[in-house]
Amino acid sequence: MSTTVTAPEIPRTAAARLRWALADGWTVTLRDLSHWAREPGQVVAGLLFPVMIVLMFGYLFGGGMAVPGGGDYREYLMPGMYAMTMLFGIEATFTAVARDAAKGVTDRFRSLPIASSAVVLGRSVADMLNTVLGLIVMIACGLAVGWRWHEGPARAALAIGLLLLLRFAFLWVGIYLGLTLNGPEAVMAVQILVWPVGFLSSAFAWTGTMPGWLAAVAEWNPLSATMAATRDLFGNPGAGGTTWIAEHAAVMALVWPLLLITVFLPLSVRRYRRLGR
Fold it and tell me: What is the pTM (predicted TM-score) of this model?
């Protein structure tokens, strides 16, 4: 005796489709979170790696770093490290997406009667939850090494919002690269992209100590805009400057992530729909 399985009917109204997409996306999110629960070592290593960099730069190299206007170097460093942590997330997103694509998991998802946006939606929610956890760990690390915010909780919350916006933008960069490059082994190519972008910024050194052309490149780095804006919101040293980009860091901390989202979100969706063609 054969059994006939009837595929669920695709919702017809916009509201029903939205509920369908959210429900399927949450199912994929739970699937991604369960993978982390079974492999906690990878998550712990990802959380502790930025902490190691903070300790290395804060205590080994910090004594030789110039801070604009004076002040404690670790208070200058921490907003930069918060933004760097948002950048490092590209590697984790890329590896997860590329692994699923290489193993045929993504193709299997595409063959199921689920919302077409569920896979990328679930991945984005899971990675943003992981980012919040990582940011909590980094803030705890900052408090432990003497960093503080000095402008009140409202401005601190705005700074955290800018950091999460930056991570959301980089998330779509990671998804697009994961769907485009061949397999998780290509993570080395992603690291070659990520690390120069991270270090060619104002994360560890004040741009005023750099040669003119290098300082201009570093100041126009999207990371530097978020770093400068969060330093100002937290009340930490290193905010402000005499160049146009430094004076408008808060604006650019919104413009850069929104520009990245505008470019890479539709590219990711288009690439996902064209997989296997």
Answer: 0.88
